[in-house]
Amino acid sequence: MRRHGFLIDMDGVIYRGKQLIPGADQFITCLLDRGVPFAFLTNNSQRTRRDVATKLARMGIPVDESHIFTCAMATARFLAAQKPRGTAFVIGEGGLLQALHTNGYAIVDDEPDYVVVGEGRTFNMEIVEHAVRLILRGSKLVATNIDPNCPTSQGLRPGCGAIVAMLEAATGLTAFSVGKPSPVMMRAARKELGLATDETIMIGDTMETDILGGVQMGYRTVLVLSGGTQHDDLARYAYRPDLVLDSIADLADEATYAAVIGETLPLVAHESLGAAL
C-alpha cells in the first residue's frame, strides 16, 4: 500500500456542533491503529491545540496536540519567518495569542509590525478604530482566515473574514490571509506530517476552503456531504474533488479507502463519482 496521509477538516466532517458524525470515531481509530499520519485542520483561531484535542477526546476521538494544526499556528509561524521576533496588535483570543507568543512575537498596542485578526467575540468598535489607525500608519494587515462566518450550535455568527472586511473597507488595503485555502497553511500542514504532495489527501465539507486549497496544492481531495455542501452545489464550481462521499464513515469500507488513497478505484466508485459530479 502506497504511503499516504490525511489533512482533515473538523466541523461538518468529524462533528456538527456538539454532535459526533456517526462513524467518524471509527475512521480515526483506524488511522491510529494503522499508523497513518493525519492532522485536523481548522480555520478557527480561538482555541489552542490542547483545547481542540480535548474537545475531540470528549467526543470519543483520542488524539493529542500533535494531530491538531490551526490557522493560528500557521499565521504565527508565517510571521516569525517573515520578521523574527516581531510585534503584533491582535484582534482575537487565546489560541492566536498563544501561537504568536510561542513563535517569539510580542503583543503590543502601539507601532506594531502587524495587525493580526482572528476569530473573537470580545472586540468592539474602539478596538476596530485603533486597528484602522495602526494600519494607516503602516502596520501590515494579516488575517488568520477570511471565512465570513462561523457555525455554532445557535446558528451562524460573524467570522474572521467579516471583521477583516470592515478593516479593509475602512483602510482601502487588502489583508494577507494565511488560513485555508491559502497555500501557506496547506503546505505547512503537509510538511508537519512529513508527506510529499502526491501522498497527501484533503478531506473536507467546504468547496471554497478545504477542496479549493487541496486542488491548488495538487493534493487528492475528498468532499463529504455531511456538512455545508450538497450534490447540487457542485455544478457551480470550476474545480472538482477527486471523490465525493456521503460521510467520512464511508472510508471504513476497504474498497472506498483504496480508492481514496489512489490504489484501485472500483467500478462502483467510478459510477458514484460520475453521478455526484
Describe the protein:
The chain has 277 residues and is α/β, with parallel strands linked by helices. It has helices at 24-34, 49-58, 71-82, 94-102, 125-136, 160-171, 183-193, 207-217, 254-260, 267-276; strands at residues 5-9, 15-16, 19-20, 38-42, 68-70, 87-91, 106-107, 114-117, 140-143, 149-152, 155-158, 176-177, 200-204, 220-224, 243-245. It is 38% helix and 20% strand. The chain has two domains: 5-43 and 182-276, 3-Layer(aba) Sandwich (Rossmann fold), CATH 3.40.50.1000; 74-177, HAD superfamily/HAD-like (Rossmann fold, 3-Layer(aba) Sandwich). The strands form four sheets. It has a six-stranded parallel beta sheet with strand order 5-4-1-13-14-15, with helices on both faces. The protein has a five-stranded parallel beta sheet with strand order 7-6-8-9-12, with helices on both faces. It has a two-stranded antiparallel ribbon with strand order 2-3. The radius of gyration is 19 Å and the shape is globular.
